[in-house]
Amino acid sequence: MSALLRWVAVVREALATAWAQPVASVVTIVMVAGMCATVLLTTGRTVGAEQAVLGSIDSEGTRSIVIRAEPDAGLDATVLGRLAHIDGIQWAGAFGGAQDVTNIEFPG
pTM above 0.70? Predict the structure, then answer.
């Protein structure tokens, strides 16, 4: 039996079963359509909420400026005080190089 004849037999059997049990067929169609609609509507709402959040962030003009300087560049903590007085800057922070330390009370 060729593949085409098998598919024809499967489709014919499915149609015969659906015709023999109309209530179950209608309930199945309604359930599948409802689940598809739920997925599509939920996805649309999620994308809409994501766009709203991104739009509110962009409307605030949120920006980060990162300045990297060599250790001998002469920058110290007084730069933060001067930056704090500039209009539009809400927060300024400075980070130095990491230093590994050990507690001498605990060997190892």
Answer: no
